[in-house]
Design brief:
This protein is 65% helix and 9% strand. The chain is mostly helical and 197 residues long.
């Protein structure tokens, strides 16, 4: 429980309250729809502010992890077989290398602002779509900022898990693919049925 993770948690709560409030405004009638729209509007404004604070704090105050040796995509799947150093601003390095990735945080901002506008003009259907885009933008921003790390370690940076060091042999990956191909359509069909009923 340190300040930055708590700030990230508040940002996620604001994001989900925005999206859930817009959905509630879409699916209900007044007075519930009006209260949900107002709450979602406040949450959208809070998301923009908190997301900005998170970005500034990440750029200025939290050293990022950089792999310096031993963890390429062809390396052995050993989380400890790499060297990691801490560098200021490194969590934002992917945006400096590939400028087009800035579309993810832009989508997070734009979606939240458009959701706020859609709620003010009483168009919750459009608000739901753009708030969903905002959620996608915020989640993609986190993934892009962390890449190639999946679970960075704050205690021992070289022990963090990366995309390459968490891979397994071919057979377990193939079995997981088969399970996914079978169960994801079943889950989607069940969810569609429940939603319809």
């Amino acid at each position: 429980l340190t300040p930055f993770p708590l700030l990230c948690g508040l940002t996620r709560v604001a994001m989900l309250v925005m999206h859930g409030g817009v959905y509630l405004a879409l699916k209900t009638h007044d007075p519930v729809a009006g209260r949900a729209a107002r709450s979602a509007g406040w949450a959208a404004a809070a998301l923009v502010v908190l997301f900005t604070i998170c970005g500034i704090w990440l750029a200025a105050g939290i050293p990022g992890q950089v792999i310096t040796a031993g963890a390429g995509h062809n390396a052995a799947s050993n989380p400890l077989a790499k060297q990691v150093t801490l560098q200021a601003g490194a969590w934002l390095a992917n945006y400096r290398i590939h400028r087009w990735l800035l579309l993810a945080p832009a989508l997070g901002y734009l979606g939240a602002l458009l959701a706020l506008l859609a709620l003010r003009t009483r168009r919750p259907g459009l608000g739901f779509i753009v708030s969903g885009l905002s959620v996608a933008g915020v989640v993609m921003t986190v993934g892009i900022s962390l890449f190639p790390f999946l679970m960075p370690s704050s205690l021992e940076p070289q022990s963090g898990l990366t995309v390459w060091t968490t891979s397994r042999r071919q057979l377990p990956k193939f079995l997981l693919l088969l399970a996914t191909l079978i169960f994801v359509p079943l889950i989607l069909a069940y969810t569609a049925l429940v939603f319809r009923v």
